[in-house]
């Protein structure tokens, strides 16, 4: 049977296995799901990407065929079920193909950031025991090879673009041209049990050494089932999803590789933050996901632009913003304000929506706390910004707000199939099929994270402190990150840093004060705003209690970045690293 015939075969002809081996949607594995969908829609666009000066597409049938070739080649090179394979690449179709091929033969994907240092790669290679690496460029191949030299070497190194000099690497084209038995691979994929390990996602390490989160197929399939009702109600089948986060990010790996494509969306890989404004116009996405920092940048650009407009346009914008916030938070609009609001919608909100492509159904923020004032800005202007919550240890999506029932002070209700509970000490506990199997090679950390809850059953202890209001989760802090001042007061650094960074003048912030008389801060000013930071700190202090107020602050010697080790690849500040590097400066502020 040819590959084309295999893709055209109806699903019922391939259902010769036990019904109990199927999940809620009839699939027990991620490759099994993707192959089934490729048979149903071989000619539909799956992925869109920029290459050689133009947008190009990979269709579902082409994707399945490439997965078959790569899977056969990996087997021919001796890859066995359970082997871990490092995958280091920018977001591109080859990433998806490699990921699916690895899982289809029972091996385990280890997604890794392209921004990782040699030391980062060495830690992951050593911890995971990976002996094979698939990378995108010769430069990345050299970096991974250098890391591997310190950890026992690699058995196989594959490079997608060109051949690295001086390294025993194999070309990607060799894998994609390997003869394959696609029907057999599809049949095997249907037999993969839901509990088999699919990938090791290494946490970004904001507070310590990254740990390998063991996610089985069921965890990510549970995420899909949990949001299926939301996605179906949004009506985004056939519409584009603009993928901005790297595929090595646990959220993007689940949502961009499997969840949204399986719901009929075409995934479009962004060319980067500097092209995002143009891509909103080119792609006209229905859904976009990003971290809060991106929304802070977008707001700052919008405010800078409105400052250049005429007095009338500025007043209309400010009126629209003010009335939009009042519609959400009160007090209720008066009769005259209600009458003028439709006019503001046409004059202001429609134009704002058009700048974002005109058909956005959800702007999703995740990865860090989204300040309610920041989300309020976008919502008041008619943009559907919603906040979700999750952890790599939980598939990773735990909860998300609904565009039609958005409570922006919360992270939304738990997904369908997710149980949430608040322990006596305030910690959020989670249970369900989405929860990881544990941390790779780390039984102590696993035992600490997966342990008995109040009912004696095993729960994921998230390490986040929060509460549940009207069925929605509210996250207030990290359990271990409270600052205890000299006076014995407990202060939340996440709250203070979130408030500081919600001010347009402040790009990054870290606060300190453990065992000191008061709270001090290390701040990075937004571009061109260096002389306005003091005013921003004063505005934040006006919102805080006496014990929480920033007593003293200083500008950071340099911005926190991935390159200087003070920012994770997902744009989270490494608080511990910042506190250690600048302990002298912070100590002088506290005196």
Q: Can you offer a commentary on this structure?
A:
Keywords: ATP-binding, Ligase, Nucleotide-binding. The protein is α/β, with parallel strands linked by helices and 591 residues long. Among the domains are: 3-31 and 56-202, 3-Layer(aba) Sandwich (Rossmann fold); 483-590, 2-Layer Sandwich (GMP Synthetase, Chain A, domain 3), CATH 3.30.300.30. The protein has an eight-stranded mixed β-sheet, with helices on both faces. The protein has a five-stranded parallel β-sheet with strand order 4-3-5-6-7, with helices on both faces. Strands 16, 17, 19, 20 and 21 form a five-stranded antiparallel β-sheet that branches.
Helical/strand content category: alpha/beta
Distance between the termini: 77 Å
Rough shape? Answer: globular
Number of helices: 20
CATH class of the domain at 3-31 and 56-202: Alpha Beta
Low-confidence stretches: 8-24
The count of DSSP E runs of length 2 or more, i.e. the number of strands, is 26
CATH fold group of the domain at 3-31 and 56-202: Rossmann fold
The proportion of residues in beta strands is 15-25%
In this structure, how is the largest beta sheet organized? 8 strands, mixed
- The Cα radius of gyration reads 25 Å
Give the proportion of residues in helices: 25-40%
Catalytic activity: a long-chain fatty acid + ATP + CoA = a long-chain fatty acyl-CoA + AMP + diphosphate
Organism: Roseicella aerolata
Biased composition (Basic and acidic residues): 11-21
Keywords: ATP-binding, Ligase, Nucleotide-binding
